[in-house]
Amino acid sequence: MTLSSTDRRSFVLGLAGAAASAGLTLPRMAQAATPARISEAIHLGLYMPLYVAINRGLFDKHGMTPDLKTAGGIAQPVPALLSGAADFAVTGTGMSINATVEGAEMVNIAKIAGMISVWVVAKKGTTFAGPQDFAGKTIATLKFPSNTYTTPYYAMKQAGLDPESDVKWMSLPFGAQLQAVADGRADYATVFEWDASIGATQFDLDVVYSLGEALGPAVFSSTFVTRDFLETSPEAVQAYCNAIAEAERMLHEDEQVFIDVAAEEFPTVDPAVIAAARPRFFGDVPLVPRNPVITEQEWATLVAHESGAGTLRANLPYAQMVDSSFAEKAAKEFGLS
After folding, report:
1. 67 and 13 in one domain?
2. pTM of the model
3. Which of 60, 81, 170, 320 would you call most buried, defined as having the most Cβ atoms within 10 angstroms of its Cβ?
4. Percent of the chain scored above 70 by pLDDT?
């Protein structure tokens, strides 16, 4: 499957329509510091700092009562903020840009995932040196705009390939990519966790490459709020960042925290999968951030990726889209570099 530029425009414009239908022009009421109403895109392992902050009582410690709801898609936390159903959105950072282009004025306050978390899985013995090795092969992915499609697409462009003609795309539903590699219908699958470790532990496949590590640090997922909420409830924003900072420190200091919270949040995932996945969350470019501060470099990497993949309506600057002051204060308080 190859997506045309029209398909990408339709996706981006669809996000704009969702934001408009949520009532961009309606004023937002200032929210109290408690409860902390959080809208997450999907229940994903890469949001582990959020789950640790909830499960280990860190929001409560910092004066907030967490109220987490799963929106069901990467664009859906935006309408939740705009309708007043939530105060904090946890999703792909690019969603904050597209909403702001439509006039919603979102501001990113904390880093939740510090790497574009897509891995390449293949049969045992497969050699994979980089995106150039996709040439002439069949790749099993989820449907656009999933990063399992957009990230290899972007990486191939960076490597000088034409992803429209140099590879064959196999767009499959959740859970089917690994089987496609195992039975030989696809040469590679590009997957998130827990799928990478499911491939290794249950399908006898190898995780042969990290596209995210190759691309470098990026603010793949973030927490953002409306500018109105930022200005009217700075104490709530600070308390939120404090809880996330403390959770990220806890995750890096004690590996059992990841194992235990993952088991609590994802009870249907085999413990062997969780154990196999943990090193990929704490690699050279850690998926679990060491602190919640969003740097200009991480912003630039994410924007270049999303723009190259065709999921952004505009390239908005770091200075407009990020307020790092709360995360910086939290990082300093908890001794995080």
Report:
1. yes
2. 0.87
3. 81
4. 90
